[in-house]
Amino acid sequence: MGSKNRIAKDILPIILNGKDEYNCYVEPFVGGCNVIDKVDMKNRIGADNNEYLIEMFNNLQSGVIDFPDSISKDLYDRARTYFNNGLSNEMSVAMIGWIGFMASYNGKFFDGGYNGNYKKRDYVAESIKNIRKQISDLKDVKFICSSYQTLEIPEKSIIYCDPPYQGTTQYNSSKNFNHTAFWEWCRDMSKQGHQVFISEYNAPKDFECVWQKEMTTTINHCGTLKPIEKLYRFKKQKIGE
Ligand SMILES: C[S@@+](CC[C@H](N)C(=O)[O-])C[C@H]1O[C@@H](n2cnc3c(N)ncnc32)[C@H](O)[C@@H]1O
To answer: What is the distance between the alpha carbons of residues 200 and 209, in angstroms, rounded to a whole number?
Structure first.
């Protein structure tokens, strides 16, 4: 859930239009990196407030930790216990991240249970193969663990936000997300000269929808099997508005 892999090719030409005028591409909610991995800008920042995710990507980049190529149910259960009890002295944060993201059902980081073998498909092995392939497109991304609100953003950046969607079930680090504060932050960032884009189903009136597409999915977002993915941008204010 939440991966923008399927729409990245549709939205990136819009987000990156005019990119030469901007210094940096920033994703404050980088998640599984399924958009940033397709961005051809020299300076890229991928941030997220999930430290397990950021530590996993930092270590995939550096290769310092040798992550295992298979994850048993037993190893998964152990990592989940360490995670639930905050025991990163027993297993590194990066390793707990690797196990939680690669082996949880739907990539839901210890929220959906162990993703075992179904109908001859080995979902854990598939996730591991995909991320190992993906990492070559993330080599020079600067990964930062931060809440979007405290993230330092270089002057004149393109900011693409894929926040937890309003009204959908949230998990772990996305619970209690303040949507009003988020939209206010987007306004501020736009006024500071950044180009800000947001993926959401709905937005306040001062944001305009610049792209939309009906998706076919088996995941039930907001009570429908055909959610409409949308991309928003802050409307340029006219004098007197
Ligand atoms: C929908 S996912 C992003 C998925 C990503 N676009 C992709 O295609 O892989 C949302 C992410 O926002 C992160 N997040 C939630 N609240 C946050 C906050 N306050 N600051 C920064 N990141 C946050 C979550 O940890 C999660 O990884």
So the answer is: 10
Q: Per the confidence metrics, is the pTM higher than 0.90?
A: yes
- Identify the residue whose C-alpha is closest to ligand 1 atom 1: 2
Q: Is residue 32 lining ligand 1, measured as CB closer than 6 Å?
A: yes
Which atom from ligand 1 is nearest to the alpha carbon of 48? Answer: 22
What topology is assigned to 1-49+146-241 in CATH?
Rossmann fold (3.40.50)
Residue located nearest, by CA, to atom 24 of ligand 1: 174
The C-alpha atoms of residue 68 and residue 97 are separated, in whole angstroms, by: 12
Task: Determine how β-strand 207-214 pairs with β-strand 228-234.
Answer: antiparallel
Residue nearest to atom 18 of ligand 1 (CA): 147
pLDDT at position 106 is 81
pLDDT, tens only, 7-37: 999 999 999 999 999 999 999 999 999 999 9
Task: With cut-offs at 50, 70 and 90, classify the pLDDT of residue 169.
Answer: low
- Give residue limits of the domains in the chain: 1-49+146-241, 50-140
